[in-house]
Amino acid sequence: MTTQKYKNMVEERTKQTLQEWSELSEVNEKDIYRFLHNLKGTAGTVGLQEVEQFADATLPYFMESSLKSWSIEEWGDYLYPLIPLFNQDSSVSLGSVKTLDKKGNDDALPHNDILLIDDDVELVAYLKESLEKQNYYVSIALSAERGLKIFYETKPDLILLDILLPDISGIEVLNQIIGKAKKERIPIIIISGEYSKATQLHAYRLGVMDFLSKPVDIDLFLALIKNRFELKREWQESIIVDELTGAFNRKHFNQVMKQLICDFKRTERVFSLALIDLDYFKKINDTYGHLIGDEVLQSLSELVKGSIRMEDTFCRFGGEEFAVFLPNTDASSALTVINRIQEQFAATDFFAKNEVFHVTFSSGISEVTEAENIADKIVEEADQALYASKDAGRNQTTLYTDHLSSTKKHSVLNVIVVDDDALIRKIVTHQIDTWEPEDIAEVNISSYANGLDFLQSDWYSIDEKYIILLDGVMPDLDGVEVLERIRKTYPEVNILVIMLTGRNNQADIVHALQMGADDYVVKPVHMPELLSRMERLAHRFLF
Which among 29, 320, 367, 529 is annotated as catalytic? Predict the structure, then answer.
């Protein structure tokens, strides 16, 4: 569909609504509110800026909860000026409904993830908006419990932490995360209204990088964040060892890959790459805690390093995934090495909560060949073999073969749009139909016009994963009520929820985040940003 076609649909629907209302003796105020609320989000999404601004300015004159009825003379004075605005709006491009390719585009957010732990919702919303205008991605936690959960699940690049939180103090949060944050080189910045000298000294001695007092000067704040990310990049470029596990890091992985490929082109000496991924590692963290999870990672690292040759290279590839380079080794010989390590690791006893448990890993191996000696291709082949091992039942190793090249990771994502605005549903579902997120084999899209129809449908399967795009304001049952029922009824591990909200709807934002929303997007919806957020969230619980 073209941009103009979307605009024509908005104009036609608006005129049709006003025509229908003109034939009624009275119109309920809540219907006028919903009309303007939906128009604001839809018009902005399709590029009708004048119409969006008019709806935004007119909306405060009406209330969703009001029982008042308006005559045509009353509501006409407010709404009929809309009609000529469709002709005045000269916006032609529609950046929000562009199709993203598999790797995204320049509008997508880069991998600078910030975790903001603070219960001051107005400040949180302001900082989130300001930071994301600078192309940072911000996850929000309004409580210490939520902040700790996000920290351990996502490993952010930087943490902004308030001291006064509703459940436990920020200092207690700091005590729990500072050791891991130091090992992972994650800067922590305190932002607090409690800034006595004693508090600042205590925080600095625990290991925070900076301490900012409220109110925040946004220009200085953004400059500081930019400075800290530049410093973090310098750290990353200066080290090649992952401090938690003692394995080499991703930077060294890239260097070794380049060296081995150059050597192969010059001498034709083969090498193999094995990717190793711990099975059900998230369940270990959830069951026994993240400190025990760290012990498992360290134990695997010690075993591998003690089982390979001096010329082999062991790297932490990311999270619970590792890589082993085996120079002068074909795939079948590499399989013997990895199988031996696999058996020893599966027999290792781990102790927690007065019980013994065991952990396994799956692996995939690729061998450099004359035809395929490009780094990305070698990794892709090992990756396909790894996921073949997982699909076959885990705790095994698969050698890459040509028949795997036509397969993709068996990962399925279900996206559900719940919004009473038919045009928004059409736009979003159309874009998701053409969306190809990295490493996700299949995306299934469905939509519902209201929360009741959604909740009463047979939408959920225990073995599948879901992202729900949920409108905050809907008739009969609003988005926050739908969210509350989702969280009470279904396991959170399988469902991520992104709330779609109006710009000034701060009360809905805080309520949604408290009820367990994973993110929110302000209308009008900018599709590249929304798809980027969805891909980040999907990778959080699919892999």
Answer: 320
Going from the C-alpha of 182 to that of each of 100, 160, 179, the distances in angstroms are 36, 15, 5
Secondary element (H or E) of residue 469: strand 465-471
Report residue 443 as tokens.
């995306």
Among 238, 261, 287, identify where a domain stops: 238
Clarify whether 438 is annotated catalytic: no
Cβ proximity of 326 and 348 under 8 Å: no
Shared-domain flag, residues 435 and 473: yes
Task: Return the ∠ at Cα 34 (arms to 18 and 425), rounded to 5°.
Answer: 95
Which residue is it, tokens 């109110």? 215
Q: Which of 131, 149, 280, 137 has the alpha carbon at shortest distance from 218?
A: 131
Task: Give the pLDDT confidence of 35-72 residue by residue, as tens digits.
Answer: 888 788 778 777 788 888 888 888 888 887 888 899 88
Write down the mean pLDDT value for the chain: 86
414 touches 437 (CB < 8 A): no
Do 173 and 75 lie in one domain? The reply is no
pLDDT digits (tens, 9 = 90+) for 478-533: 888 999 999 999 988 889 999 988 755 666 677 778 788 988 888 777 888 888 88
Gap between the Cα atoms of 467 and 518, Å rounded: 10
The DSSP line for 203-255 is HHHHT-SEEEESSP-HHHHHHHHHHHHHHHHHHHHH--B-TTT-SB-HHHHHH
Residue 374 in domain: yes
Residue carrying structure tokens 């200085």: 220
The structure tokens listed for 146 are 């939520």
Is residue 410 very low, low, confident or very high in pLDDT (cuts 50, 70, 90)? low
Residues 301 and 433 in one domain: no
318 and 352 in a single domain? The answer is: yes
Q: How many CB atoms lie within 10 A of CB 1?
A: 12
Give per-residue pLDDT as tens, 301-339: 999 999 999 999 999 988 899 999 999 999 999 999 999
Give the residue numbers spanning the domain of 71.
1-81
Closest CA to 363 of 323, 405, 333: 323
Q: Are 415 and 445 in contact (CB under 8 A)?
A: yes
pTM: 0.65
C-alpha 480/C-alpha 517 separation (Å) is: 9
Neighbours of 240 (CB within 10 A): 15
Q: Output the domain CATH number for residue 187.
A: 3.40.50.2300
DSSP 434: T
- Is residue 500 domain-shared with residue 423, that is, in the same domain? yes
Residue 67 placed within a domain: yes
Residue type, 67: L
Q: Is residue 354 classed as helix, strand or coil in its secondary structure?
A: coil
| pLDDT (0 to 100) of residue 1 | 41
Nearest to 418 by CA among 483, 327, 324: 483
